[in-house]
Amino acid sequence: MGTEGADFRVIAGRYRLEARIGRGGMGVVWRASDELLGRRVAVKEILADDALPDDDTRRRQDRTFREARAVAQLRHPHIIVVHDVVEQDERPYLVMELVEGGSLADRIARYGPVDAAEAARIGVALLSAVRTAHEAGVLHRDIKPANVLIESGTGRVVLTDFGIAQVAGATTLTETGSFVGSPEYTAPERMSGVRTGPESDLWSLGALLCTALSGESPFRRDSIGGILHAVVAAEIRPPAEAEPLLPVVRGLLERDPDRRLGAADAEEMLRTYLETGRTPDAPGAAATSGGARGHRTGGGRTARPGAGSRTGQRTGSRPASRTAGMAAPYSPTRPDVPRSPAAPAPSAGPPPRTATRGVLIAAVLVAALAGAGVSAALLLHGDDAGGGGSPGGTTTSPATGTGGGGTGTRPPSPSPSPTASPGPTRTDSRTAPSGYRTARDPAGFSLAVPQDFTRSPQGERVFYLSPGGTFRLGIRAGAAPPGGPRAAMERSAADGPRTNPGYHDGRVTRAAHAGHPAALWEFSWDGFSAAEGPRHTYDLCWEESGRVYDVWVSAPVGKVREAREYFDVALDTFSVTAS
Asked: Where is ATP bound in this sequence (predicted)?
């Protein structure tokens, strides 16, 4: 992931922020220096939610400190080390160890799926980590490839981003009643709001193993409704690549949390595969008839006769011979398709509990799409958006002294139909995160934009608009302005009250983008009409190879978290191409 947005702030008198290196649940992660101890660290800035009242914001920050301190007590080689929790300008910051290396998601996107032996190695590390967390009463609640780091050189697996973790006996970090997590990796019992326990993290690990082996979650669909149905009700189809580890995968993807494979059992089974090339049956899997099921507490191992929904099949497959680096590229999204003949057949088990499943589906849909206070777009992208907001309406040339967020002109009209052509762009989904497409724009650049955004050029500016124009992502390339990006942005900010109605809280800071000098302009404004309402803008302008590039996003203040994700992804994937 690229770097941008360094502003060289010093937090708590000792942590100097140098460059943004990523984003995670509710925050932005910075590479930083601990000037007191002379070491490199990672600092996670918990971004404010402007839609929350001040009292709720303070309560949320208090919970952040309380839960971060609990996570800081965890000591495990495969759990990120939290060094410090500080506050500055009424905003929390978590200071963590700096792990040099990309995420598992980055690795899969770049090199393709891993083989069974590597997946088992990763699984063993993560299962050991979650056992330690669960024994301390900490649930992660957002285990997915993007939250697993692979350290360069050593290959160490590190579980990170406990940003939405829940501590036993405490209110959750996010507001009560809101859905948090990434739907493709979220257990069905959490989807419905019925319960959250250690078992839910184990379901997420099962989905993660499938993604590592095949390139995508088995619950990936083209719509939020499709994802919810896949998690709650549809036939679970582990990918063919999961066959060597099938007893573990099926055991972790048991919908009934009381019958789900325990962490200790799963870890032992994966260790056996690494030692022998064979995955043993899950405990109790040989008994397929009815009978009392043993109850499991924590991550321990107890007999559970009659685990009917698992195959219990012993596989004799040896680890695959290919390496991650040689794997073919893959497409991170695909529509619902019939099960391939090569895929393992569904196991025989007790008939589905139709009434219970129907109630669960209804509860999930109602909670996720109506009462949870989370939009479908946010569910699709998970809760790992950075927070923040994004740039204003339209842009004029930095060469004339204005940046992306501020002009008095109206935004371009969105396409009349979601099915309208996005314009003359080519897409390559292999380089875009899940839920995005890579747009190779004829204006001479490429970047990742959400799947449903449509292209709308306006003179020298190019917009990618969400349906209805709620989110506006703008890009402009031009000649280098006098004084560089910082001077151009400061001129734009000075003109902000004229170009953006109700302009306030504007700030221009020195920044960097992929090693190039840049400036970040952030501000709020009243929108172009009362119907549109207040908006927030992030606008980054940088100079590269004698030209200036300007990227901004504008969004309603109540949707700043989604907008910050779109902004971050656009910048992280932006590249100059031949026009």
From this structure: 44
